[in-house]
Write a structure and sequence with these properties.
alpha+beta; 25% strand; 12 helices; single chain; Enolase-like, domain 1; Uridine Diphospho-n-acetylenolpyruvylglucosamine Reductase, domain 2
Length: 264
């Protein structure tokens, strides 16, 4: 690990000012950034620790919206009775991230901002039609995720919270890597007032994406049977040591059926 400056500001404005400096990185749970620094794959000049910012913590359920502060851990989301009641699929997703150590340190904001192509939260954001709120603006999930490890965030922009509309039903299923527990393929299915939404993580060469054919089928008939005959295309899917594109295409269909079956 290379030398770096460490800052722990006590206000969002101070954090934003520090991140505007040259080659500064935000530190949330550190579950991705710190390992890459240890392996010398990343060498920021400064780390800006966001853990002291109270406005980034907490869960609020109000009417038809669940709002989760960016520094809220996966364990807190998984253990929230309010989230489990309002959006069962979201609570289940959070409970399946990594292991207990990861869940008690990793944060929703860090996961969304990093946009790892095999991460779980991006699928929930996309399927539920979430809004990512930053210190500067609000960004719809459909416009937020722009590619592998890429988002619409500008330099120095900080995610403060994520707002999820409450779905009529939601479920998540993933075929996970037994070592990392990242999704080889994960599917989040949501029945919303605007129709069915299905988001796939772990499979796409360009990161998380919506499976429109499944959405059309589920909009007409929200059931496992509606997607039983669908086959995802292998075009544009990842092939690696864990699974080739054809196998991932098969898993998309299987995980979609499981997500719909698990939906509450």
């Amino acid at each position: 690990m290379y030398p770096f400056a460490y800052h722990r500001p006590d206000s969002l404005a101070a954090a934003a000012a520090l991140l505007a400096g040259e080659d500064a990185k935000a530190l949330a749970g550190g579950q991705t950034l710190l390992p890459t620094m240890k392996m010398r794959l990343a060498s920021p000049a400064a780390l800006v620790d966001l853990s002291k910012l109270r406005e980034l913590h907490g869960i609020e359920v109000s009417g038809s919206t669940v709002t989760i502060g960016a520094a809220t851990t996966h364990a807190e989301v998984a253990g929230s009775a309010a989230v489990a009641k309002a959006i069962p699929g979201l609570a289940a997703l959070a409970g399946g991230i990594g292991d207990p150590a990861v869940r008690h340190k990793g944060t929703i904001g860090g996961s969304v901002a990093n946009n790892d192509p095999a991460a779980d939260y991006p699928a929930a954001c996309l399927a539920l039609g979430a809004t990512i709120v930053t210190n500067k603006r609000e960004i719809a999930a459909d416009q937020f995720f722009t590619g592998l490890f890429e988002t619409a965030l500008a330099e120095g922009e900080i995610i403060t919270k994520v707002r999820f509309p409450v779905a009529q039903a939601s479920g998540y299923a993933k075929f996970r890597n037994p070592a990392s527990r990242y999704a080889i393929v994960g599917v989040f299915a949501a029945k919303t007032a605007g129709g069915a939404r299905v988001a796939v993580t772990g499979a796409g060469a360009g990161g998380v994406f919506r499976w429109k054919e499944a959405e059309t089928a589920l909009a007409a008939n929200w059931s496992e049977a509606a997607v039983a005959g669908l086959k995802a295309s292998a075009a544009g899917l990842n092939s690696d040591i864990h699974a080739d594109a054809e196998y991932r295409a098969h898993l998309i269909g299987v995980m979609t059926k499981r997500a719909v079956a698990a939906a509450k």
